Every structure is written in structure tokens, then in C-alpha cells.
Amino acid sequence: MSESNQWVLDAAHSNASFTVRHMMITNVRGEFPKLEGKVTFDPAQPEATSIEATVEVSSLNTRDGGRDGHLKGADFFDAEKFPLITFKSKSVTPKSKEDLAVTGDLTLHGVTREVVLDVEGLSGPAADPFGNTRMGATATTKIKRDDFGIVWNGTLEAGGLLISNDVKITIDISLIKQK
Hints:
The chain is mainly beta. It has a single domain (3-177), classed as Lipid/polyisoprenoid-binding, YceI-like (Lipocalin), CATH 2.40.128. 4% of the residues lie in helices and 54% in strands. The chain has one helix and ten strands; from the N terminus they run E-E-E-E-E-H-E-E-E-E-E. It has one helix spanning 65-72, and strands at 6-9, 15-22, 26-32, 35-40, 50-56, 84-94, 100-108, 111-127, 133-144, 163-177. An eight-stranded antiparallel β-barrel has the order 1-4-5-6-7-8-9-10. A hairpin with a 3-residue loop joins strand 2 and strand 3.
């Protein structure tokens, strides 16, 4: 692919977030506002797409400082020891003109596992008011946190666990084409 198919993630217009069931009652969401990435993409050859992304664990925000501190600590993400979450694509399968299945390695908490990101709503390329060419999409997947060595939990008095093992991940990205 040519250099003109290089894109960078616009962190100001992108978001990496997770959702996990709390106390078997409700979903709790968190986000990582500090992320970066690069994508090689050609709409004529979507199967040749490559993606690399990095998320700063210390940027975690669940809108509750106490919870954020616990999640950044050794019981969960251990941000001091594992400061980054990374994703590197291995293959891309087009599902439609606007949807892709991206298989790649997710490294979280020092553990690397293969995951499939379901990429939907691929939009663009389109010009923005500032002379840039942009694309966007939403990617989702579900992981088991114990697959990545994140096993802390609590047992509820009425039975059940404090935190679900299943974690839904959503990544909304805005990409800027490199000139």
C-alpha cells in the first residue's frame, strides 16, 4: 500500500471504553482518554488493513476517584507495572462495505491474547473543515478479564460476584489521513 493510505488516530475525537456488570445489578463504564494509533487502510483492499493502537492505563476514568484508584492498582490493571494496553492486528476480513472483522493481539496486564474486533459503520473518507481527510468507525469485542490475569473479585452476601468476568470493550475512532 502507498504512503497515502496511512492514517493516525485523532485522540481528541476517539474513545476507548469498557463496560462490566457490577454487583449483578448494573453496568459500570470506564474510559481511557489517552490513546494513540496508526492504521494503514485502502478501501479497495480492506483485507490488507493493519492497525496498531496503544492506550495509557493511567488515564482510566470511571467518574469515581476511589474506584479509579482501585482499578489502576495491583488488584486490577496494575498501571505502574503494566502502563500500556496495546492492540496489533494480524488479519482483516471484510464483512460488508462498512463492516470488518479485525483479528489481532490484545496485550493487557502483561498478557497477550488474540481477540476479534467487530468494526462497524466505517465512514468516510470525508473532508473536514480544516483541510484534513477523515474516516471513523466503532469497534467492539468482549473479553474475559481472568484470561488476562485480572482475577480480583468479591462475593456478595446474597451470593454471586461483585464484578462480572465478562468485559465489553468499545472503541470509537476518528482517523486523519496522513499527507
